[in-house]
Design a protein that fits this description.
By secondary structure, the protein is α/β, with parallel strands linked by helices. It is built from 11 helices and 9 strands. It is elongated, with a radius of gyration of 18 Å.
Length: 243
Amino acid sequence: MHDAAILAELIRTNQPCVALTGAGVSTESGIPDFRSAGGIWERFDPYEVASIDAFHRDPARVWEFYALRLDALADAKPNPAHHALARLEEAGLVQAVITQNVDRLHAAAGSREVIEVHGAIARARCLRCGTVVEDEELRALLPLPHCATCGVVPKPDVVMFGELLPVDAFARASQLAQAAALLLVVGTSLEVWPVAGLPEETLENGGKLAIVNRDTTPYDARATFVIHAAAAETLAATAAALS
C-alpha cells in the first residue's frame, strides 16, 4: 500500500488526531530552517539578536533582526502541507494543529484550531502594560516600534532564548497530545524541548505516533508509521486519499 494511503488509514481509524508541525512544513514555503546547515544561526549569534537578555540590553538591535525576519515572511504563502491540514480539520479528521512555527501560515491556509507554542512573529507585546500590536500595524511601526499605550519598546511576541514557552499555549498542547489517539508529527526533528516531549505524552496515554519528516527523529523506532519525505507532497496525497 502507498505511504499516503497507509497514513490516511491511520488517521481515519485513530481519532482524535492532532498534528504537531515544525520547520520542515515552513521550508516548503520558502522560509529558511534556522538550525539546518546554512541556516540563519550560522550567520547570526542567537544570543545577540534573539535572546531575552539581548532584548533588554539592546532592543533596537533585536528589532533590526526581527524586521529582517518579517521581510522574509512578507511573500510567503501556505504550501500544500498547510492546505492539507486545514482540509483535514474541516473534514473533522484533525482536531488541532500544534505548531513550533511562528509564521502563521497554518491560519492563512484556513486551520482554525492552531496552538502557537513558540508565538507569532507578526505580533509584538509590551512587557510593561501588555498591549499587543499585530501584522500591518506592527510593520508600520518599524524599524523600532513603541507601545502606543506606555511608550516603551514592545517585545517580538515569539519565545526567545532564555524564555519559557507561553503557559496557556503549552498547557493546551499538552492536553491535546495526551488525549490524541494519533499524534501526526510533520516536519520536525523533535529536538527542541519542551515540545519534543509531546510525543511521549501521547504514547504514555495509549496513543500512536505517525511521523512525516525528511530526517530521522528520536521517536522513529516508537512510531506506528514513519515516512521520510517532504511534508507538502505527503500530506497533499494523504488528504486526497481521505477526501
